[in-house]
Design goal:
By secondary structure, the protein is α/β, with parallel strands linked by helices. The protein has two domains: 77 residues, Glutaredoxin, CATH 3.40.30; 88 residues, Gcn5-related N-acetyltransferase (GNAT) (Aminopeptidase), CATH 3.40.630.30. Strands 5-6-7-8-9-10 form a six-stranded mixed β-sheet. The protein has a four-stranded mixed β-sheet with strand order 2-1-3-4, with helices on both faces.
Amino acid sequence: MIPNIKLYGASGCHKTKYYQLILDEIGLPYEFLDVEQNDSHAEELRDLYENRKLNFPTITIGKKKLRNPYKEELIKWINKLIPSRLSIAHDIENKRFILDINEEVAKVEYTLRDDKMYLVHSEVPYNLRGQGIGKVLVEKTFEKLSEEGYHAIAVCSYVRAVAKRSEKWSAIIGH
C-alpha cells in the first residue's frame, strides 16, 4: 500500500518544481497543493507546523513531514515508507534473499537439501519493524522464487503464515 504523498508548494517556486521533477522521476502518485493559489491548501500547510508559517516546499508521505529535504533524504524516506517499490536480490553465495532498505538489510535465509529450498528464517532490522516490511520481503521472495523457477518449503513460521494467506503462492511454497 502506498501512503498518500502531498507536495505543498507554489507554482512559481523553483524548489517546488525541483521536487515535482524528483517525484515524477520516481513515478509515485502525489498531490501538488499550491499554497499561494489556494487558501485551503495554505491553511492545511499551516496546520502542519506549530508556528503556523507557510513553510514550503513541504512534502508529506503519510504522516511523515519533510521540509525542503535533500534528494537523498527524500528517497531514503520513500524507500522506508514504501518498501514495495524496492527490488529484492537473491544472494546465492549466502543463501538468502535480501531487501536493501537504505543500507539496512531485511532477509529471508534458506538451506538447500535434496534439491529442495527450505526457507528457514526471515528477519527485518529492529528499527524497521511494524511497518509491513516483513510481508513485502516475503512476498517479493516468493516472486523471485517463481521467476527463478524454484519451489520451496516454508519452515519459518512467518514465511509460512504469509504463504497461507494467499492461494497465489501454493504452487511454489510448501508448508
